[in-house]
Amino acid sequence: MSRLYDHIDLRVPSLRDATPFYEVLLPALGFTRRVDVEGWLQYESVGEPAGAFFGVTESTGHIANENRVAFWAASNAEVDRLAMIAVRAGARNVEGPVPYEAGYYAVFFEDPFGNRFEVCHREEVSMD
């Protein structure tokens, strides 16, 4: 099995207010192809036959909870770069980027509505 997930459907209370944040963040995370789907802001990853996608839609009664979506980065420098992009896009409650434990480097943040995200890099750590 080569794919571990197909897509993420995220809810926000206002799609119009969410669009500026996600139009900056999603392409930086690798979701670079904008797809027109009525009622959704949707970006796909490129390079896969059926690209993984991240969709955002409006649910006026949506209230963020403690769930978190974490994205993998290829290096600590990539975590740093994506953290700066998230801040520029309007992320709030940013924590990091910092090393949290041996071989684990991450930044945690929320979208403008409180939906939680993380970008992390993990290195293999010897257990000897």
Query: Approximately what portion of the residues adopt beta-strand conformation?
Result: 35-45%
CATH class: Alpha Beta
- Would you tell me which CATH topology applies? 2,3-Dihydroxybiphenyl 1,2-Dioxygenase, domain 1
Please report the distance between the alpha carbons of the first and last residues: 30 Å
Mean pLDDT: 92
CATH structural architecture: Roll
Secondary-structure element pattern, one letter each: EHEEEEHEEE
Record the strand order, biggest sheet: 1-4-3-2
Helix content: 10-25%
The main sheet comes to: 4 strands, mixed
Global morphology: globular
Number of helices: 2
Task: Report the strand count.
Answer: 8
**Rg for CA atoms:** 15 Å
**For the record, what is the CATH homologous superfamily label?**
2,3-Dihydroxybiphenyl 1,2-Dioxygenase, domain 1
Oligomeric form: single chain
Which consecutive residue ranges, at least 5 long each, have pLDDT under 50?
none
Count of domains = 1
Indicate the structural class.
Answer: alpha/beta
Descriptive terms for the model:
VOC_core; Glyas_Bleomycin-R_OHBP_Dase; four-stranded mixed beta sheet; alpha/beta; globular; VOC family protein; 128 residues; Glyas_Fos-R_dOase_dom
Question: Can you give a write-up of this model?
Answer:
The protein has 128 residues and is α/β, with parallel strands linked by helices. The protein has one domain (7-122): 2,3-Dihydroxybiphenyl 1,2-Dioxygenase, domain 1 (Roll). The chain has two helices and eight strands, in the order E-H-E-E-E-E-H-E-E-E. The strands form two sheets. Strands 1-4-3-2 form a four-stranded mixed beta sheet, covered by helices on one side. Strands 5-8-7-6 form a four-stranded mixed beta sheet, covered by helices on one side. A hairpin with a 2-residue loop joins strand 6 and strand 7. Helix 1 (15-28) packs antiparallel against helix 2 (76-89). It starts with 6 loop residues before the first strand and ends in a 6-residue tail after the last strand. The model has no long low-confidence stretch (mean pLDDT 92).
